[in-house]
Amino acid sequence: MCGRYAITLPAEAMANMYGSLDRPNLAPRYNVAPSQFAPMVAIGKAGDTRIIMARWGLRPAWMAKDPPTGPLFNARGETVADKPAFRGAFARKRCLIPADGFYEWKRDGKLRTPHFIAQPSKEPVAFAGLWEAASLEGGEILISMAIVTTAADDSFRPLHDRFPVVVQQPDWRDWLAHDTPASTLQSLIAPPPADFMVAYQVSDHVNKVAHDDPNCLVPLDNELLSAV
């Protein structure tokens, strides 16, 4: 599961990384939560790469409103090709979701300890995503997205049994392209290589969604706690 993440990459750097002409007005986000807006990368109508702001929480075009339980912010990779809420987007509307990393809370009874999971180098990653465009009352178009998840490997499972799918740069075009075979897409839905990302404990400052500042990412000590 991925319920919070951070993306602080400046617009210019993001545009250069993904080969986009878009320069959206992006403020650093240290604590993105479901139902909030954040950047996604997708293929535009002209076949170009676009950086677009989207609500984190998918609403399929055929859905009159969000489900009673709230927006669909994660999509299980094992069923994404078949589940009605996601199969249309999986077939035709895949995106990349830029991130510095994501937060997870380790449970010990009633105690929940926040951790941040990122590359040891602190370089950004691209989560596999799905997007949709739905018409709202008044004619407004809602662009929304969800993060595709997969089973976590053994090293990460003490924190959570799910992990966002990270798409490596050589595979970005395959994930985004409309004509990529389903078998190729399924092969990308897997945990990242061992030691590709690490987890470190952060303070409970991040627990409040209203806290969206650099203090969310400050480690409680200077040592990485675990490799995942």
TrEMBL record:
Coiled coil: none
Keyword Isomerase belongs to the record: no
Record key words, sorted: Covalent protein-DNA linkage, DNA damage, DNA-binding, Hydrolase, Lyase, Protease
Enzyme class label: hydrolase
Pfam families recorded: SRAP (PF02586)
E.C. numbers: 3.4.-.-
Domain of life assignment: Bacteria
The family this protein is said to belong to: Belongs to the SOS response-associated peptidase family.
Name of this protein: Abasic site processing protein
